[in-house]
Each structure stands twice: as structure tokens, then as C-alpha cells.
Amino acid sequence: EDPSLERHFKGHRDAVTSVDFSRAKKQLASGSMDSSLMIWSMKPQMRAYRFLGHKDAVLCVQFSPSGHLVASGSRDKTVRLWIPSVKGESTVFKAHTGTVRSVHFSSDGQSLVTASDDKTIKVWTVHRQKFLFSLSQHINWVRCARFSPDGRLIVSSSDDKTVKLWDKTSRECIHSFCEHGGFVNHVDFHPSGHCIAAGGTDSTVKLWDIRMNRLLQHYQGNSVVNSLSFHPSGNYLVTASSDSTLKILDLLEGRLLYTLHGHQGPATCVAFSRDGDLFASGGSDEQVMVWKTNFDADYSDVVKPQKYSSSVDETHGTGVEMDGGIHHKKTKTQDSVRTHEQQEEETSLANTLEHIMGQLDVLTQTVSILEQRLTLTEDKLKECLETQQKIIQNKTN
């Protein structure tokens, strides 16, 4: 069955720049050139929240892994962390000396990586918004930066036409991929962590194996690639292009599977939901669209947590060795032998742990908000005291 348009959201007053689903698909976040961030409810007839705080275009948004926080980056050079509820409270920190183009949480939710027009990538702690370190070998604007699934690597893409791979511990650039012929707008890790994909102004999408640093696949399109997202199974990639289309690539077959037309004008951003059932797109037409995936009946098994098999299905002849679900069906493992009770117990425990982590996110974020307010109050009190002292001095003089 072909992918189908499920619904679309209208509310932004300028081009949509970024979209991301919360973990449980209850909410969808979008950023826009209109300087706002919107949180859309996936439940019918539920109203959206519009968050105002940034002083200029919001260029990137992402939910934390728990879904209890949303990070946004802006042309106003700041990053904000929001609690996605009615109040829409946020903390703000001056992240860069240039436009912030990308924000991304590590899979444990503890770190945030940001990328900017100041040519640097920065890593921060989430709970205190404390700056940890900078990565600065790019010689032009950095468009995108992402943590690897295991959090040990960072990949970045830039207007210097390179994609760089960094070791988070040593903070060294371990490889530069220079095959792109134009600005590289977007880059991301394959779910296995063994491959990366990037798209840019040269109208291509390229996939590399980062263990051997070799090009695996190359797709030549007709228009600038603005954004891309891997399906959680690792078998598909969706792209958003300036020719208004979304394209779904079959990585197993190494071919274009679907071209979707929905947006009027450039499609600027695209992202799969965490389970791969849905994907969202945004465009310069101010619309956010939600699509039902439909195209793979067998992937539900693949997206469950598992050890990725390293077998390669040679029948496809694409030379793809992606250790990350590049197979049609899950091989039988000890997981399938586990009792139903054990699985339920593990799921329940994992859910409880996630809930606690989520509450911790909210609690620490609330403390940060209160700290920022306290600092503002102290500053105002100091101002008032200084003003009073001046008045008294003037009177005595």
C-alpha cells in the first residue's frame, strides 16, 4: 500500500523549518520562520499550543527521548528548552555567536548537541544547560549535527561541502567525507550506528559506511535536498526537496520507491515517528503534513529493540552492508523464546523507568526556570536599589 496523507496542520505564518514527533506520537512539534514553535496534538479536535519566546526564526526543534522536553534553536543565536504543556514555559541560553541551525538530544536524554553559523558544534548538559565543549574544524556554517545511537560519535554537515565524524570522548575529528559538490544541508545516523546519510544542494543523497569510510550508495535527484530521516527499521530513507516532493528510498534495493507530492513550494523538513508508522513534513507553504507510512508490512518486528544481525542479503546486489535491519524479517533469537510474562514485566519496568526519567526532566527544567526567574528578580532589585541610591545622592547634593 502506498503512503497516504493522514492530516495537515495550519497555524504557522511563515515557512515551516523543522518537525519532530514525541516518543509516543501524542504530539508533533514544528518550528517556523515566523519565530514560533507549535505543539500539535495528534488527537482529533485538540487545540495546538503556540510557543513564543524566540526573537527570530526558529530553525530546529526536537523532543527529548522521554517526550517531556522540546529543544529549539533560532536565528536569535539562542537555544530554548520548553515543557510542552499549556503554560509553554522555557529556559533560554545563549548558545552560539551565530544562528543556531540544529539541536539534537543524545539517546539517554542527558546531552544536547547544537550546530551554528559560527562554524562550531557545541555539546551541553540538558539539565543544567551547562556548556561542555566545542568542535570547530568546519570552515563555513554548520547546518546539522547528530549524536550516534550509542552517543559515542557525532556527525556534522556544513556549507564547507564536508560531512565530519567526531569522537565525543577525544573530541577529535576522526574522518571528513568530501564527496558532496555543494552545501550539505542535513545528515543523520542509520539506526544501526554503522552508516550515515547526507543530502544537500548538489541534489544528491549519499550513504557511507563509517567503519570503512566508504561510499555505499548515491542517489542523484533533480533538486536541493533539505532534510532526510531514516525509518527505524533502517530499510528506508525519506527526503524533503526544494522541488516540493518527498522521496522514499528503498535502501535494500538501492532505488527510489515513492515520490510524494503534497506541499506547494519547497518541502523543507521531514521526520519519521519513533515507531515508523508515520512521518511528518513541513514546507515553505506554512503547512505541516502527517503521512501514514503503509509501505512495509513486516517492519513491526524489526523496530523492536534487538541486536542487529550482520548478515547481508546478497541477492539485492547493491553492496549494502548496514548491520542495521537490512533484512526482510527478523531472524529467530532467544528474544522470541522468552515467556510472555517476562516480556510484560520488562515492558512495565521500562515504562516506569521512562516515566521517572520524564518527571526528572520536567522537575529539573522547572528548577532551571525558577533559577532564571530568581536571577531576573535579583537583577531588578539591584537596579531599583541603585536607582534609589542615585536619588538619595542627588537630594543630599
UniProtKB/TrEMBL annotation:
Biased composition, class Basic and acidic residues, residue ranges: 332-342
Keyword Coiled coil part of the UniProt annotation: yes
Gene3D superfamilies given in the database record: YVTN repeat-like/Quinoprotein amine dehydrogenase
Extent of the WD repeats: 9-50, 51-82, 93-134, 135-176, 177-218, 225-259, 260-292
Keyword Transferase: no
GO CC aspect terms: centriole; ciliary basal body
InterPro entries, alphabetized: WD40/YVTN_repeat-like_dom_sf (IPR015943), WD40_PAC1 (IPR020472), WD40_repeat_CS (IPR019775), WD40_repeat_dom_sf (IPR036322), WD40_rpt (IPR001680), WDR55/POC1 (IPR050505)
Database matches in PROSITE patterns: WD_REPEATS_1 (PS00678), WD_REPEATS_2 (PS50082), WD_REPEATS_REGION (PS50294)
Family in the record: Belongs to the WD repeat POC1 family.
Function text: May play an important role in centriole assembly and/or stability and ciliogenesis.
Residue ranges, annotated region (Disordered): 310-346
GO terms, biological process: cilium assembly; microtubule-based process; multicellular organismal-level homeostasis
The protein, known as: POC1 centriolar protein homolog A
UniProt entry keywords in alphabetical sequence: Coiled coil, Repeat, WD repeat
A Pfam family per the record: WD40
